[in-house]
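Give me structure tokens for this 616-residue protein.
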Amino acid sequence: MPDHVDPSGKINPPSELGYTGAELDNALLCEVAWEVCQQVGGIYTVIRSKTPCMVKAWGNRYCLVGPYNPQASPAEFEESTPAGPIGNAVKLLQKAGFEVHYGHWLITGRPRVVLLNPKSVYYRLHEIKYLLWEHHGISFPSYDPLVDEIVAFGFLVNEFFRALVSQRDSNQPIIGHFHEWMAGTAIPELRRDKMPVSIVFTTHATLLGRYLAMNDPWFYDHVPFINWHADAKRFNVEAQVLIERAAAHGAHVLTTVSEITGYECKHLLGRKPDVLTPNGLNIERFVALHEFQNLHRIYKAKINEFVMGHFFPSYSFDLDKTLYFFISGRYEYGNKGFNLAIESLARLNWRMKQMRLNRTVVFFIVTKRPFRSINPEVLRTRALMAELRENCRSIQNQVGERLFVSAAMGQWPRLDDLVDDYWRLRLRRNLHAWKTNRLPTIVTHDLVDDAKDEVLNQLRTCNLFNRPEDPVKVVYHPDFITSSDPLFGMDYDHFIRGCHMGIFPSYYEPWGYAPLEAIVMGIPAITSDTSGFGTYVLEHMPDHKEHGIVVLKRRNATFDTSANELTDEMLGFVQMERRDRIAMRNRTESSSEQFDWQNLSQYYRQAHEMGLQRTI
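Here you go.
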């Protein structure tokens, strides 16, 4: 590790480096990412949420570079006339026959964006692959659609920086910040050509680490002894891993998002990160000032409506004594901790029965799985509930009007006289159709292959079937929640606000946005010490539990130990009184400010300063 970086990854102030920072204030910064103007995974959230802060700090000296996807990009991108050195570089590329688009990303800050169409250079793909093999020893499979597109994109990024160098002021430094291996394919050739660009490479997760963690319950203990090349071949990702390692070693500065991922980088990429760049959020987007408690009440009422439609045809329970827990994220059964969460739910169910707690927990599992359609029975009960509500509203209006007339006449009417036979008969028919003897379904959709779905099979194994006597109920929703969702009818952010706690016991999670998104909306969350967010909280928030953030021990702990700890934490929350939960939401929301990009962007600035220092 360089002398000016301490073991925590923090860089000493620029003055101690013999560097004034003046060059940085004049530099051009181009951030390259595969998820610019197209959402594929978590990096989209990183880039998009950080952009307003970067635009504010860099102004017109900042731009984003990504691939042009004809299916996704036009929805988020507005083309405009190229201008400035970056625009001149775009014109140069267009003149050379490359398909390049210049404009603005339609998000807060409206950053300048350069989008390069990889498929426009597919006719040169064999040449591009050959040069990467000849110059850097990276061989590629004969046909892999994603790798082909990424390699072609890397070639265009190289050409963009070559054009930008020719168009910028000779005294103006250029910083290229590359995110993940999909954007890093240009780095080896940039270094070989001695391009005057300060290169920063951020790996948000090692590619090999993700594969290994899925298949090794003691992954973190085994990391120092892994043969990375043999395992890359075993998982058939040799080319991707070679690209990632070439980018990591070719960059002037290597960064990653957390200490736990830095540990992977050291052993799987062969280089220790120079700087840790933790992820944040644009907190301003979620700010509700003193309204967040009221918003919790409003959106909880919408979840109540779903719960009534889902459970009440079979049996009912007291919604005032019901808590809503949830887990969400990409479907990685072990890595995301779905397996641990379900096991802990089964234990919580048993313990609540033994203690005879007069509480109910409804646990939502929100992820994305292949499905044919929404379960017809779920849709049927939703339609019946809508009709029931409409009938009750009509009866309410009729009763109110007739009661008023009778009262004005000084009469005390009989209740039966206030409602017509028509509405009584219609309500009776509603109730007859509404009630059923079946148990509420544990999954809301018709999965394509439910017999092999790991989440569904574990729910069955744990006997979590939504029986009336079970205090813990489960709703497995294998689709992301959006405002167009016919079951919830609200955005995911609103769904979070209506819940009481987020459960995210990930085993492999380089950062983890899900608990952070919950916290900024005042919802307590459980994370783990094998997630980047969890390790950051342990280091920077000694009183994190008081602020509604629980960090579950998973590193050097057995599955059974972690399951018991998670059960204890959920049970403790269930036993809290309402006033205590309200106080905790206040403390949780107040702690979110430290995760604002306005505070965390300083680590990016340090990485950019170091990059210039190493190339001046």
